Amino acid sequence: MSDAHLARLAEEYGVATTYEDWRGRRERVSVDTLRHVLAALGLDAARPREALAEHWAKQATRLLPPAVVTRAGRAPQVPLPDSARAWVELADGQWAEPGPGLPLGVHALLVEHGSVRQRAPLMVVPDRLDPAAALGDRRMWGLMAQLYSVRSRASWGMGDLRDLAELADWSARDLGAAFTLINPLHATEPVPPLEPSPYLPVSRRYASPLYIRIEDIPEYAGLEPAQREAVQRLARPLRERGRTADLLDRDAVWEAKRAALLMLFQVPRAPAREAAYQAFLEREGAALVEFATWAHLAEDHGTDYRGWPPDLRDVAAHTVAAEALRRWPGVEFHRWLQWVVDDQLAAAQAGARSAGMPLGIVHDLAIGVQPGGADAWMYHDALATGISVGAPPDAFNQQGQDWAQPPWHPVRLAEQGYGPLREILRQSVRHSGGVRIDHVMGLFRLWWVPEGATADQGTYVRYDHEGMVGAVALAAHEFGAAVIGEDLGTVEPWVRDHLTERGILGTSVLWFERDGDGAPRRPEDWRIGCLATVATHDLPPVASYLSAEHVELRDRLGLLTRPVAEERADAEAQVAAWCAALVDLGLLDPGTDPVSDPARVVEALHAYLARTPSRLVGVALTDVVGDRRMQNQPGTSDEYPNWRIPLASAEGEPVLLDELMADPRLNEAARRVLRPVLGIDPAAAPAPPGPAAPLAGAPPLDPWT
């Protein structure tokens, strides 16, 4: 076998044969990795010369690419033979010439040349999103929270959509917050055990009924007193556990909620409610039937469809349709659950906007789904198998990451006009003011890890970014939503330039913002068009970061690739550099010990963010209450209780939403942390040197660059 032919075949399909690592070193991809990745793309990598010849022969007969993507106001650009004829079938069934005046949406481009006629999706997308349309012309701040961890006295042991509505209302009315950014609320398994990670769902197309507030379902009022008491008996032990700092138990929560929801499903709906339900079913159509069928089949056959009876593994099989009809009451229950979730998502966003939030709720879109879950079953034809998505080694995750999620197949997704991606995105922005896209670089290239390989043995596979970004822009434009791309880690500079050009905001994390010499970047040098934060959900809360205790944690978990003393010294040096920068700017008193007095450093770090020109500033709720525990330790599964940690104080005591809003001590502590971004009581501290306008009074800034 010729390695040269293999490398050329890889290049033809956008598979990297080399890449630059996080230290700037050029790494060569192994032959074995290239073979596995090309096989996942449907190529015979054992015969690269023949596969290459077949590819070129096929290209010679193609008149159209897998999909044609053009921006609004531009004519589709496809090189065609002089005698070829082209026309467009619009989404509404009408015909048009392929000129610059085509409406936004997904149409079909048809080409005829001699006896050959070919057809391809034609996606007309916005040239760029207008962030000012969603955000206005002023800077904004908001809270960032892992919703499941934000419990109240009324919630059933974990945060729910009523808790979200109340958090948003309080932060807007009392504190002036413009948005609330939360973790993904994607669908989880319909039966225990439930995957705790919100970033490893069974579906991104639909949401998790775990977040339903039972008592907010209108049919609850129609229960008989004995039935209401039965529901409350289910809730009481969960509420009692929810007042402790014990780890969250999603399985117990879902078993109780499911029992209550089954009762409520049987309650007759008022005519207006029934009409709303039928309208929801009509809007969602076949996709909801497929999802609900998967959920009901999973209750009997397990949550990995790849282990189901063979005649049920193909979503389009007649046997699947027949089985769904035979089990229709169970399928209908899962359709109803999605209606209830959708209704409460809409109520949370409406409440946030009514409270004065310009944006309201900002949802998070995970990078992928479980390989045997609902989306993998529904969208099987658009996914690659035998491969999982991950990330190469970096400074904080030195062994790389394998996220155990199948990637989109670049060609097959394009051939479907990016339909599955667009459906997922529309669902994310339907009831929100914006969406944060986790690992937004995945719209350009993804790190593919062959099944059975370690995370560092992968390679990058490129996507048609015009199509991927265009699908995002089309969905966001439809609902007037802002888009934030999480562009951390190894990012090619042109990727950030393209996202900026398309009106997609970036993400700047304080700990990673350094200049060319590795020193903390001065606040005035930060990007304007981004969400600025101190940390992320994959990093320790600030109090923990300041003490470098995260180093010992990673050492105990076997995640370090260099001596712990060296790692600790580096972490302490970074904290010292940032504290020196804060002192230099007059934001922190000299001599402040970040370990013994973390609250002052937390406040100073957010004062630093307030001095940046970044349009959005996010403040983690964990930092507001002084929590020290990480929500997630990348590179672990059972070794650390990822995504199961409830909100707690610096002393490890549980913090309930009711107390945060009403307890004067907690409220004042929260305001101290938030003071820099609120501009609260500016006379209480010496004015810092130089101009430092609080966010609430920041002047309009333009342009969005």
Characterize the main sheet. 8 strands, parallel
Q: What is the helix tally?
A: 22
According to DSSP, the number of beta strands is: 21
Strand content: 5-15%
Model regions low in confidence, pLDDT < 50 over at least 5 residues = 680-705
Q: Please state the second-level CATH architecture of the domain at 131-211 and 337-382 and 393-442 and 464-697.
A: Alpha-Beta Barrel
- Tell me, briefly, the overall form: globular
What is the C-level CATH assignment of the domain at 131-211 and 337-382 and 393-442 and 464-697? Alpha Beta
* Overall pLDDT confidence: 92
Strand order of the biggest β-sheet? 18-15-12-9-8-21-20-19
CATH topology of the domain at 131-211 and 337-382 and 393-442 and 464-697: TIM Barrel
**CA-based gyration radius:** 26 Å
Question: Can you walk through the features of this model?
Answer:
There is one protein chain. The protein is an alpha/beta fold and 705 residues long. Among the domains are: 68-125, no CATH class; 131-211 and 337-382 and 393-442 and 464-697, Alpha-Beta Barrel (TIM Barrel). Helices cover 39% and strands 14% of the residues. The protein has 22 helices and 21 strands. The strands form five sheets. Strands 18-15-12-9-8-21-20-19 form an eight-stranded parallel beta sheet. A five-stranded mixed beta sheet has the order 3-7-6-4-5. The protein has a four-stranded antiparallel beta sheet with strand order 14-13-16-17. A hairpin with a 5-residue loop joins β1 and β2 (26-28).
